[in-house]
Amino acid sequence: MRCMTPASTGPVSTGPVPIGPDLLACISRRAQTMTASAIREILKITQQPDVISFAGGLPAPELFPLDAVRQAAETALSKYGPAALQYSTTEGHLPLREWIAGRHGIPAANVQIVTGSQQGLDLLGKILIDEGDLVLVEAPTYLGALQSFQPYLPRYAEMPTDEGGIDVDALATLLAGLAAQGEKPKLLYAIPNFQNPTGRTLSLERRRRLVELTAQYGVLVIEDDPYGQLRFSGEALPSLYEIGLELAGDVDRNHVIYSSSFSKTLVPGLRDAWVEAAAPVITKLIQAKQGADLHTPTLNQMMITELLPLLPAQIETVKAAYRERGAHMLSQMDEFFPAGVTYTRPQGGMFLWVTLPEGVDTVALLPRAVENKVAYVPGQPFFALGGGANTMRMSYSSATPEQITQGMRALGATFREALG
Description:
Aspartate Aminotransferase, domain 2, four-stranded antiparallel sheet
């Protein structure tokens, strides 16, 4: 269907009656591939005040450092004056970029500030993905990444996963098989720390093997790490980006691209996140961001910079709360969930993953759960190639202990009704 003025079949008008083009036909093919976020749509039906929702991955609002944020705004305005409210460089506020760069010992020139991690994923998709490119994703993977990449019309291949995240032996087999067919994936997208949606963490051994395999086969890696600092058990592990730096020996030869955010550690509403990458990627990322929004809000970046001294204590506060809430949710699942229902036990982050027996459809089950005054996110939207009908994602980050107890009791009852 062409974007053109539809033919008139009625009488000829004697006055100026604008008809205009067929608006639906004017929508680009890329835009036609866009879909609404399944999570956002689910949140709409769970907004009843008496429904306890574990669907949204929302940071706990009562933990936001309101007084410190207020003071940071006043300090930034006093320190920078009108410049805090002016247009700024696309790359981002230099003191903030320098602080971020220092974490990995790289130049600030290799850091791009973006307006939330979601924008970073969208811009990376724009500059890296051509129509038909093959993108490797976990099964399941972050729904927002699929939404960001889809308008650029990639093909997907799913990497097998288990309780330890990406199965790197299976990945090696997958890459070798593709190479034998003369095909090379453009990029691999992964969340190695407390993955959204499963809460799983990739081991050090698997991280090293993944970086080595992708380097061997010439595959770019996007490491999405919004939750990495929210570890509440186990030992901290090096990022894929750090392993890539070690392997490459040069920041501008590192094939791993790193994305993170202040949304989960400080506050999400300021929408400050960043990408670290080699110069060829950063150069195009800057150009893409110029076309998107010129730059991330100046005042917000200055406020985040003023909040950096508070960040370690704020992270400890958030970790302590999530440790308690996650442990309580697991204990209530142990008590109320029927046999045959399994779930992950995260070492950090905000999510865990529930798997019901085969044959249970969590999409169909959701209205019954809402009737029982509890809500979750069905697992199907997190699979790029379909599947996962019997799975669901749960978030414990913004729920009180009382809500968790009541919600797990209601959800356990919902499961027993479904299982008969």
